[in-house]
Every structure is written in C-alpha cells, then in structure tokens.
Amino acid sequence: MMNQQIEEQAHLLHDYVIECRRTIHRFAEPSGTEEKTSAFVQKELTAAGLPYEKVSKTGLLATLETGRPGPHIVLRADLDALPLPEEPNNLAGPRVCVSDNPNTCHACGHDAHTAMLLGAVKALTACKDSVCGTIYFCFEEGEENGGGVQAMIDALAKRKVDACWAIHVYNALDSGKICVQPGPRMAGAAVVNMKVVGRGGHGSRPDLSINPVFCAAAILTNLS
Question: What does the alpha-carbon distance between residue 109 and residue 170 come to, in Å, rounded to a whole number?
Fold first, then answer.
C-alpha cells in the first residue's frame, strides 16, 4: 500500500518536479554561491511543513519524523552549477530554459537532482501516515569543489543513519529507467601533484641526459 501511495504521488508531482528543475536551472549558481537556489529550496521545505537547518552557507538538512520506529534514511542531492557558458540550443532546437547567468550553467544535472529531492519531500510528506522511521533530506552545497560535504557529514554524524541514497542523472539510460548495482560506481576526480626531475645534456650526447618528458609520458600511460 505504501509503495502504491508513493507511486501515485510521484505521478501527481510530475509537473511540479519539472518546474522546480527549470527554476533551479535558471539560477545556475557555482559552488558556494547557491543563495537563490538555497532560498528556493527553503521556501519549498517550509511549504511542505518540514523543519530544516542550515549546515553550511547554503547547504540544508530537512527532517521528516514519522513518529513510528523504523530505519533512518538519508536522501541527498547537490545544489551547485558549473562556471561554464550554456549553449542555448540542443539537438532538438532552442532549449526550454537557459541559465540567467551567461557564464554559468547546470551542465552536470544538479538542477535535476535537487528537483527530484524536492519531489521526494512532497511525496513522502504526503504519505507520512504510511511511512515508518526518519528521513533526512540533504541538499549539499559545493559538490563540484567539495566545499560543502564535510559540513553535511558532520551534521549527519550527530544523527542515527542506517542508509544513504544519492542518485545521479545519466543520459545514456532511457527515460523512466534507473540502474542500481552494489559497490563503487562511475569515476571521481582527484588532484595528484607530481614533479619529474630530469638532467640536462648536450644535443650531441642525448644518451647522457635524462629527458623528464619521456619519464612523465611513461608514468601517464602506465597509470591509465
């Protein structure tokens, strides 16, 4: 019955989630500057009657207490956009909405993530009488530069957490499908600094020098 209720709510919220996505898409604020996006999310959380707290400059954590024993579940999305110009057209023609700022855009789908989480807020709040346990809705700032994750982790460390779910849009999947599998999924980015030191020599005796470019190329090809 609970699953059926949630599914019914999801259908009812179809247009709401799309409109939220388009609103957030137009804001398109880079990491740590998500003021309008955060204010919009706060307005929607207040309308849903959910208590929330700021865990960083723009990051938010809202809580749905059902009053019944059950698991403590974290649902998480990210707020920030990227400092990239947006192409106003796609393969089908002019985009329905574009960023208000010509130098930033939601190129990584965080607008969709936040909109979907707002949809989950509405759906699960509407089904509160059928849901058990506690649900935390985490809107993380600065995912792209890692600026908001520690504050969110610190806030969750003060609470009981049994499981965490974060989803990422993926255009290679047909609409309406999701893909789930255990273990690590897709790639992350990390910065590694390395200094390769060579030794100079005369052009007539390259065998007596050490070319750092060749060394660096060998390291790179062996890493990949």
Answer: 9
Is residue 28 within 8 Å of 100, Cβ to Cβ? yes
Q: What CA–CA distance (Å, rounded) separates 75 from 81?
A: 20
Token digits of residue 184: 């690590």
CA pseudo-torsion sign 113, 115, 119, 120 = positive
d(CA 29, CA 105): 8
SS3 115: helix
pLDDT digits (tens, 9 = 90+) for 65-110: 999 999 999 999 999 999 999 999 988 999 999 999 999 999 999 9
58-77 residue pLDDT tens? 999 999 999 999 999 999 99
pTM for this model (two decimals): 0.85
Question: What distance separates the 2 farthest-apart alpha carbons in the chain?
Answer: 83
